[in-house]
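Why do we bother with a discrete structure alphabet at all? Because it lets us treat a fold like text: something you can write down, compare, and reason about line by line. To make this less abstract, here is a complete entry for Aldo/keto reductase. Read it the way you would read a sentence in a foreign language you are learning: slowly, and without expecting to understand everything at once.
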Amino acid sequence: MDNHLQATTTLSNGVRMPWFGLGVYKVEEGQEVEFAVRTAIKHGYRSIDTAAIYQNEEGVGRSIRQGLEEAGIGRDELFVTSKVWNADLGYESALAAYDTSLKKLGLESLDLYLIHWPVKGKFKEAWRALETLYKEGRVKAIGVSNFHVHHLEELLRDAEIVPMVNQVEFHPRLSQKELRQYCQDKGIQFEAWSPLMQGQLLNDPVLEEIAGRHGKSVAQVILRWDLQNGVVTIPKSINENRIVENASIYDFELSGEEMARIDGLNLDQRVGPDPDNFNF
């Protein structure tokens, strides 16, 4: 893996996706999201992850245009992800949702479009819509979010295209080993949301000790662990110092022993909903 912020992984269809990006979940539409996205682009981030349900696609779009102009780079240098919400998981409604997201973002196409949650009895129809978008060349890559192994198996029974990405909750207390292995075997890139467990890991003694050894923050150690595990990661922040700090993870490496100690923190503990048991 190239060791710099613009380093990419190659998805199963040959599309290159940055290993590191900015997530904007719960970042408020307007000034807050615009500041975060522009700041990230200014400091070298090349991937932005949003979703219809975050209700900030318009602000993300505005700040992408400003950020690209300020950085003097083209749209093709930025990887933009959005997601279709549960209410739109039919065939026609997912196609329409994609158009709505593009319109709000002010973009001609997305680099990655995901099914946000595996709503029972609905996600296969939505996947057919994403396959259509992909086959028509309207989106560069398609994938899913919050899918367990059995959801993926069900999807793959009828799918023509294997999802290129599965974005799930992943952090040292939820290391999802079986799911990661399954995705690896199927050529599905694993991506982490909530990599810092919404701040709940920042006082963990094991992580603090490892961080101290490297002169790094706990957040940097966790994000480095993601990358060394071959996991794409999208930490969220609205603070410039934190946005810079989160990305400063290319000047150190965790040893095999340190990686194993972090792996050992797993408790199968979630901060978000369980994909087998959600009601939205």
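What the structure line is telling us, in plain words: The beta strands are 8-10, 16-18, 22-23, 47-49, 79-84, 110-115, 139-145, 165-169, 189-193, 232-233. The chain has one domain: 8-263.
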